[in-house]
Amino acid sequence: MTNYIKSECYRLFYTKPIYLTALILSGLTFLFNLVLRLFDRYTPDFAYATTSFSYSNLVGQPMLYCVAAFLIAAILYEGENKNGTKKNSIAYGISRTNLFLGKCLVSLFAAFLVLIPVMAVYAGSALLLLSKYGPVTLQDLLMEIPAVSLVAVSAVVLGIFMLELFEQSIFGILAWYCILFGIPKILFLLSIKLEFLQTAALWMPANFFTNLGHPNMQVTTKTCITVWDTGAGMEKCLMAGAIGILLFGLWAIATLRKKDN
Prior knowledge:
By secondary structure, the chain is mainly alpha-helical. It has helices at 2-13, 17-42, 51-59, 64-77, 80-83, 85-91, 96-129, 138-165, 169-193, 198-202, 205-208, 231-260; strands spanning 218-219, 224-225. The longest helix is centred in the middle third of the chain and has 34 residues, at 96-129. The chain starts with a helix and ends with a helix.
């Protein structure tokens, strides 16, 4: 597996997709802040050209980290079934389980490499172009990263597994979305009537990262209260992510071992 990871890291650094992804995401964040600045300059009484409003778009939607992390994993591996790369790796004696673990590690490494420039451009352009005003601060933005980190890792683990499980990538992507977003929302709606489901529903990140599943999660132009503001809230974020990694990882390994046998 070590040789496989080395070859994937080589591919990561010597092909264009990851660089283009980092460039596009960085460009979009800069463009967003630039548009706010231009609106402020040419539109009277425009109230949203502030760092607070800019940061709130990410602080108020923590699951965007999961989407971005899975996007990077999908860019790296969604075409494997078409080009035969996976079949070649299996033919060389690499088990599906080891392929899965290697892809998870490489995807997480790639996501981290993309995160650094994108967040630097996002925060830097906001500070340079916008008024430093409002309840959402740079500290809120930076503290969101560790709070969401393990949840994003679990999203990548699930995403790689779904891409491995389904021959057609579109079905893997749809399954990933349903498990990470659809099922939690359905469970939350059911828990309104069925109280015994509430505990499970409110431990799912797609629920407690919103003001529906966590009444203290309120990120607006006038207030900024996040789940991770308190020690208990941060602990819940990390524990939920760790549970997701464990559950999705064990599910994937058990399923892929059956395929190997």
